[in-house]
TrEMBL record:
Keywords: Metal-binding, Nucleus, Repeat, Transcription, Transcription regulation, Zinc, Zinc-finger. It holds the Pfam family PHD. GO terms for cellular component: nucleus. It comes from the Eukaryota. InterPro entries: Znf_FYVE_PHD (IPR011011), Znf_PHD (IPR001965), Znf_PHD-finger (IPR019787), Znf_RING/FYVE/PHD (IPR013083). It comes from Panagrellus redivivus (Microworm). Residues 36-84 form the PHD-type domain. It is found in: Nucleus. This is PHD finger protein 10.
Length: 87
């Protein structure tokens, strides 16, 4: 089970489409569920339609906060924590 550090809700990783590798990764920081997630850059929860999550660490980012016009197709890794580690 994983637990949101903000609302304290629990979820089974399979039920929220979280891989085993990501489950290990989110234990390294104060993880937030999708309902509590904020942008890692601006720390705001708004503009949900522009929010995307890193495919390695599950941190949230607004597309415009990372210099993108739209979410990329396929997998995306955040530069701040994961882009150098993904290989």
């Amino acid at each position: 089970m994983v637990q949101c550090t903000k609302c304290k809700d629990h979820a089974h990783p399979d039920c929220i489409d979280m891989t085993i590798a990501m489950t290990h990764e989110i234990k390294r920081y104060d993880w937030s569920c999708i309902e509590c997630k904020v942008c890692t850059v601006c720390e705001k929860p708004d503009n949900e339609e522009k929010m995307m999550c890193c495919d390695k660490c599950d941190r949230g980012y607004h597309t415009f906060c990372v210099g993108l016009k739209a979410a990329p197709n396929g997998r995306w890794f955040c530069e701040k924590f994961c882009s150098k580690q993904r290989r």
